[in-house]
Design a protein that fits this description.
Elements: E1 10-13, H1 26-38, E2 43-46, H2 58-72, E3 77-81, H3 87-100, E4 104-108, H4 117-129, E5 135-139, H5 141-144, H6 150-159, E6 163-168, H7 173-182, E7 188-191, H8 197-201, E8 207-210, H9 213-228, H10 232-248, H11 256-264, H12 281-291
Parallel strand pairs: 1-2, 1-8, 2-3, 3-4, 4-5, 5-6, 6-7, 7-8
Helix pairs in contact: 1-2, 3-4, 4-6, 6-7, 9-10, 11-12
């Protein structure tokens, strides 16, 4: 399939490692970037929600992205989180991403102020007209309080060729089906939930923006390839094997559990910024009982 912009099948929504002072741990970050590229990430999303973007300062986001770009050294695509519930701020963040050398941006549906569908068209249209960067829309009703309808996505995709994809973080397969049915053939749909990757592939998604790929990136890529090659039984078998981890890494607010997994794997130290808190010992043991099957 010819795409407007090819971010690959697995985009990892990368965590931001912190040290005990809860400053960015750049030594751990270097190890993590190399690990993700080695284990199948086609693109890395920097400063998304999984990266604890609500608690990162603007300067930290720029420093973080610049370090990741230097470490990746062209081995994968880099997408920068640049969304806001203020259109003017989102345009500014998009301009900053361009200056940093991002390959594309992720732009979330405005949260808290709950705009209408017409408002979403105005918001994303203004961003699209302000830049030539590829734009990945992010529809996540559980965090924003509203759903961007398939008709709205299709209208934006038809009018703005640099809006190349949508990350769909909702479990309604009818919505995914309608999005695929209405949008241009060269427009891409990504699953925004690891456990929904295979179901979404079956109704026209291309890949996943993943948290689990921090741990099982190779296995997820294999699952996607088996499905696309027509080996649906093998893909289903892999999905069922990976499913317990898909669910367990969301036993507490993201990215707390996946950070604990990466700590167990020796890649980072598990520190999160408040208001998030680390897992207690009982929660850690519950997580480890599942994790041990995969590492």
């Amino acid at each position: 399939m010819v795409m407007r912009f090819d971010a690959g099948e697995i985009i990892t929504a990368m965590i931001t490692p912190f040290n005990k002072d809860r400053n960015i741990d750049y030594a751990a970050l270097e190890k993590l970037v190399n690990h993700l590229i080695k284990t199948g990430s086609d693109s890395i999303l920097v400063a998304g929600t999984t990266g604890e973007s609500p608690t990162l300062t603007h300067d930290e986001e720029v420093e973080l992205f610049n370090f990741v770009k230097k470490t990746a050294d062209g081995r994968c695509k880099l997408i920068m989180g640049a969304g806001s519930n203020c259109t003017k701020t989102a345009v500014m963040a998009t301009s900053n991403a361009k200056e940093c050398g991002a390959d594309a941006i992720l732009s979330v549906v405005p949260y808290y102020n709950k705009p209408s569908q017409k408002g979403l068209i105005e918001h994303f249209g203004t961003i699209a007209e302000s830049t030539d960067l590829p734009i990945l829309l992010y529809n996540i009703p559980g965090r924003t309080g509203i759903t961007m309808k398939p008709e709205t996505i299709a209208q934006l995709a038809e009018k703005h060729k640099n809006i190349f994809a949508v990350k769909q973080s909702l479990a309604d397969m009818d919505v995914i089906t309608e999005t695929r049915r209405l949008c241009p053939d060269d427009f891409v749909i990504y699953s925004g939930d690891d456990s929904l990757t295979l179901p979404m592939l079956s109704v026209g998604a291309h890949g996943v923006i993943s948290v689990a790929s921090h741990i099982i990136g190779r296995e997820m890529k294999e699952m996607i390839h088996e499905f696309k090659n027509g080996s649906t039984k093998k893909a289903t078998k892999l999905h069922l094997k990976l499913y317990p981890l898909f669910k367990k890494i969301f036993m507490a607010p993201n990215p707390v559990p996946v950070k604990e997994c990466l700590t167990k794997m020796g890649l980072i130290s598990n520190y999160v910024r408040r208001p998030l808190v680390e897992l207690d010992e009982q929660e850690k043991n519950e997580l480890y009982s599942v994790l041990k099957q995969y590492i």
